[in-house]
Amino acid sequence: MQSDDVSFSGSYKLFLINKNKNHSRKRDNTMSAVQQIDAIIVGAGFSGMYQLLSLRDKLGMSAKVLEAGSGVGGTWFWNRYPGARCDSESHSYMYYFSKELVNEWEWTERYPQQPEILRYLNHVADKFKLRPDIELNTRMQSAKFDESTNRWLITTDKGQQYSAKYFITAVGCLSSANVPKIEGIPDFKGKWYHTGEWPHEGVDFTGKRVAVIGTGSTGIQAIPVIASQAAHVTVFQRTANFSLPARHHKLSADFKKYAKEHADDIYEIMTTNTNGHPFHIQNRSIFDVSDDDREQIFEELWEQGGFQFRAAFKDILTSQKANDKAAQFIQKKIREVVKKPEVADLLADIDHPFAAKRPPVDDHYFETYNRDNVDLINLRKTPIERITAKGVKTSDKEYEVDIIVFATGFDALTGSLVKMDIEGRNHRKLKDYWSAGPRTYLGLQVPGFPNMFTVTGPGSPSVLCNMPPAIEQHVNWITNCIKHMEEKNLNVIETSEESGDYWQQQVNAVANETLLPTVKHSWYLGANVPGKPQVFMPYAGGLARYTKVCNDVTAKGYEGFKFAS
Ligand code: NA7
User: Fold this and answer.
1) Structure pTM?
2) Residue 560: what are its φ and ψ, rounded to 5°?
3) Whose CA is nearest to atom 17 of ligand 1?
4) What are phi and psi of 464, to 5 degrees?
C-alpha cells in the first residue's frame, strides 16, 4: 500500500534473523542482568506498536516496548473521559501499512469513540503478535547513552536493565496531563479528575454537582455528556473557543465498502496534503467567491460537519482578513444556537483567529448551554482564586460541587520527554538541553543524543496533522535509516547543533507563514504550562512538504546527520 522501501520480505530480513539468533545465544550464556537488545521503544500507542512491528518483522531485529499502562493504546488507553472520541474520521484514523488490516477492520461511526479505537489497537497487537515484545506496567526510569559502547543503558521501575543500540521514544504528543497549580486542590472534599488520567472504572455523575474547568477540545467533548448525566454542571471558561459540529453518524454499508475499495486513493490523499486528513484544502481564496456564494459554501460544510469546513478555502489560516470571514460565520452560528444572549455573548467572544488554536469538533456543545442544568462562568471576569473544601472559589463566589473535572490539557509535545531521565553525550540531560525550548532535527533526533529517535517529536507535523499517517511516515523513515545503518555496519547516527538550529529556523519560518504564532496563549507554543519556554513546537509546513524534506535528506545521504562505524 505504501511506496516505502521497507518491506516484509527479502534476504535482508533473513540476514538479521540469523544475527539475532546469535544475540539470543549470547544473552542465554551470560545470564547478565543487563539484557542486550537491538532497540528499546517507549510507549505502546499507535507509534510504538508500529515501530516494534517495523523493526521486528520488517528488519528482523530484537526490540521491546516499555509501556507504563496496563494495556496497549497510549493516548487511547488513558483518555477515557465521557465523550472521548477522535476528531479525525475513522477511515483515516488507522494504519494503512497492511492491506489485510485495512480490509478486515470495520469502523462503525464517522468519528470513532475511544473504546472503539482501543479495540482497534488491541486487535493490531493481537493480529501482529506484538504482545510478547511489549512490557506492560513498566515505566522507563532512565536512559543513558554510554559513549564507550555507543549503546543506550535503559532501566525500568521493575529493575530491568537493557543495553540497546537504538532508543526510540513513542510517547505521544499529548500524554503528560496538565493539572493546573491552583491553590487548595488537596483541600477539596469531593472527587477530582483530570480527563487525561480518567479512572478505568468510569465516574458516575448521577445526581452530582460538577465543575468542569477548561473548554478546549476535551472539555467541549465532555461537557455535553456530563451535562446529560449530572444534576448540575458549572463550566469555567477562560478562553472561548471555536468549535465545528461533528455530525456524528453510523457508517453505512456503502461507505464502508467505498473506503475499503478506495483505500489506496484515500491513503494517497492523506499523505499528499497539509493535515493528513482524507481531503484536500481547496485551492481558492475566500475572496475568489462572492459573499453569497461563500455563505452557501460555509452553510453546506457546517451541515456536513468536521474539519472540511477549515479546508474550504486556502487562506483561512494564512490571512487574517480571510480568517475573519470564517470566524464571523461560526460566531453567527453560536448566537443562533445558544438561546440565552448573555451566554451566547460569552461563548462567541473569541480572542484568537479560527483554527489558530486547535479547533474542536463537537457533538451539540453549544446546544448544551440551553439546558437548565448548565451554567457558564467567565474566568476572564472572575478568575479562580482557589479550590476549597466545597468546590471552586472565584473572585466573586464559591461554587459548591461534588466533582471537579480538570479538562485543562497537556504539557504538550515535550512534557513526556523531559519528564523521563534521558541522558545523552557528555551526561547532557534532555530536560536541561531543552530548558530554553526543544531543539531537534526534523523532529526525529536531538543533537547530542545519538541513536535516539523521537516519533512525532517536536519539530515534526505531529499535532497539526491527523496522527496515524504522520506516525507511519516517521516510523518508516526511522526504520529505513536503521536498515541503512545495519546494512552498512554503522554504529552511530547523530545530528548536530547546526542541524538543530537550522531546523528550528525552518519550524519558525513555516509557522510564520500562518496565523498560528499570533496566538500567544496556545499550547503549540507551550504557553499553557507556567514556566515552560515559549517556542513554536510543531512543524506547520504540512505533512506533504515535511515528507519531501525528510526524503530529500535521505536522498542526500542523510544530510544533517553524521554516522560513525
Ligand atoms: P487544551 O486545548 O489545552 O484546553 C485546555 C483548556 O483548559 C483550555 O480551555 C484552557 O484555557 C483551560 N485551562 C487550562 N488551565 C487552566 C486554568 N488554570 N484555569 C482555567 N482554565 C484553564 O486541552 P484539551 O485536552 O482540551 O485538548 C488537547 C488536545 O487533545 C486537543 O487539541 C486534541 O488534539 C486532543 P486557555 O485556553 O488556556 O485559556
Assistant:
1) 0.93
2) 95, -10
3) 180
4) -90, 10
CA 206 to each of CA 85, 198, 519: distance values in angstroms, whole numbers, following the listed order: 22, 17, 38
Q: CA 490, 491, 494: angle at the middle one, nearest 5?
A: 100
Which region among 11-15, 117-121, 257-261, 366-370 has the lowest average model confidence (pLDDT)?
11-15
The amino acid present at 211, given as its one-letter code, is A
Atom of ligand 1 nearest to the CA of 408: 7
The C-alpha angle 65, 70, 74, rounded to 5 degrees, equals 60
Helix (H) or strand (E) holding 562: strand 561-564
pLDDT at 174: 85
CA of residue 89 relative to chain centroid, distance: 15
Judge contact between 534 and 437, C-beta under 8 A: yes
* Buried/exposed 460-496: b ≥16 CB within 10 Å, e otherwise: bbbbbbbbbbbbbbbbbbbbbbbbebbeeebebbbbe
> Considering only CA atoms, which residue is closest to atom 27 of ligand 1?
217
Beta-carbon contacts of 304 under 8 Å, excluding residues fewer than 6 positions away, are: 247
Residues in Cβ contact with 519 at an 8 Å cutoff, skipping those fewer than 6 apart? 352, 353, 356, 357, 525
Residue 85, ligand 1, Cβ within 6 A: no
Is the CB of 532 inside a 6 Å radius of any atom of ligand 1? no
Cα 408 to averaged position of ligand 1 atoms, centre (Å): 4
pLDDT recorded at residue 521:
87
